[in-house]
């Protein structure tokens, strides 16, 4: 659970020395509580306090990196749900969805749009970041993943299926471009966890 500024202040050495670039320990504690300063900026805080404060202020969802190189997309690591509360650490991801049973013209069109799509929003260039591939029969996830990586090498990949074997084959086809896997249910959760522990997988 997040700590308040006063709770953090109690764990600080209270030297008011300003070495953290903030004039007082109270002001520093308030900034740490608001996520605007890192506890490491105080050279005098104990390791025990660092661990306690660091754990309490860690994002509820860890940062995950999907894909690799030019295709890498970073998500998670956020401590607020709405932008007006603070700020988002990572850019919102845009994705196109391709089902494995779509015809070739539709798939080629979506791959082209994934490559070409971009627009400027309040000074920030947004582009398509991800291609989600949904297992619906027809082509295998693995074959579709290879096709997408070849046609859209700057896109990270999401593989969607409740079939763990299909996901595993798809993840292996992605190689270093580790995909996000989607589709865990109450029935397949244990198999998903086993798959998530394998090195071919980024996250589930
Ligand atoms: S460096 Fe540490 S002790 Fe000094 S003012 Fe900042 S929080 Fe307080």
TrEMBL record:
Q: Name one GO biological process term.
A: methylation
Q: Which UniProt keywords apply?
A: 4Fe-4S, Iron, Iron-sulfur, Metal-binding, Methyltransferase, Transferase
Q: What's the Enzyme Commission number for this chain?
A: 2.1.1.245
Query: What Pfam families has UniProt attached to this entry?
Result: CdhD, FeS
Q: What class of enzyme is it?
A: transferase
Which domain of life, per UniProt? Bacteria
Single annotated GO MF = methyltransferase activity
InterPro entries reported for this sequence = 4Fe-4S_dom, Ac-CoA_synth_d_su_TIM-brl, ACDS_complex_subunit, Dihydropteroate_synth-like_sf
Quote the PANTHER family the UniProt record gives: ACETYL-COA DECARBONYLASE_SYNTHASE COMPLEX SUBUNIT GAMMA (PTHR36214:SF3), PTHR36214
This chain's protein is named Putative Fe-S cluster
**Source organism of this protein record:** Candidatus Electrothrix communis
